Amino acid sequence: MALSDGTPFHLPRPSVEDGVIMEGAVGIQSSVGDLIKYSQKVMEAANDQSIKNATSTRGSPFKQLPTLWQGHIDLSPTPSELERSYALGWIRTMLPGPLGTVGLNPMYIDAMPLVGKGLKEPKLVVHHQGSLIDFLSSIHLIPSSRTAIVVMTNSMSNNDAADWLGQLVLETVLDNPDQNDYVKLARNSAEASKNLWPQMAEELERCRIPDTPVRNLSDYIGSYYNTVKDWHMELWVDGNELFMCHQDDRSQSYQLKHYNYDTFSWLLTRDETVRRGLFPMTMTEYYILAFGQGEDGQIDHVVWKHDPSVPEGETFKRLSGSASEKGLPLLAGKGKQNMLGAKG
């Protein structure tokens, strides 16, 4: 992964084995060559099934492609004649239009640039982006010409480099006379990405209520479980400081700093995040834990806003004892690379 100054920092390959949290996301290894072959076969089957109004293609494992590739959710912010929609696992964009919808770059710039501004006629692109600790990827398909553009990186930069590279190659393949300046876009998005970290620190300090009372730190000690009890946080006191870890893995611990009342924060810097092998989450609420009390006035739960699609956050109930003591499931991979916040 790239440090804030662009210097590469080596991380071990993510562990993939039965029971680890990312088993379903990285259970298959691939390559550019494999994905080009895959893309060609998918487009061939999609074309065949569309022409024949069929749901399968002889000799092909790919079925129901007209349904899979059909737009199901409109992604256009305003009504438009040019399609921009979400299919089943794919994004459909009729050029000229913005790409990179499910990548990281939309977090770093005000608006994604229009791709294909100089094309004489609209062109459908089916695409997707992927990100995981240590890796970035993008795939852009042009069904009309059965063209596939695949970009895979073995590092995570300060922006979504695979997305910008994929768009650059796409416009080159389309021979677009009015191409975007992707060098400038890459520089600006990388700078904006780095600036988000001090901005989050400033936001936390600005919103903090100073001089509020805090309980004895021992009042927060315990294990806090989600509803299905397959993920939990453990809190403990060491000296005069409160610490947290996930899944009983104290090799990946985080110091909690009192924010206000029963709320604590654990914001890291960009470089601390990289060195820990964490996904670079740039949502301020992600680094806040809000504890709550029961009818007896004792701390009995904590709310963590770790998913932007669940703005109210997830509640973790406090239970005494560790997961192993209570016979609850524990994910494997203790002491290995931290996978919090990974996307795909």
Structural notes for this entry:
- The strands form 3 sheets. The protein has an 8-stranded antiparallel beta barrel with strand order 9-10-11-12-13-14-15-16. A 6-stranded antiparallel sheet has the order 1-2-3-6-7-8, sandwiched between helices. A two-stranded antiparallel ribbon has the order 4-5.
- It has helices spanning 32-52, 65-68, 161-173, 182-207, 270-276, 323-326; strands at 73-74, 84-86, 91-95, 97-98, 114-115, 123-132, 135-142, 147-153, 222-225, 232-238, 241-246, 253-260, 263-265, 288-293, 299-304, 314-319.
- It has 6 helices and 16 strands.
- The longest helix has 26 residues, at 182-207.
- With 344 residues, it is α+β, with helices and mostly antiparallel strands.
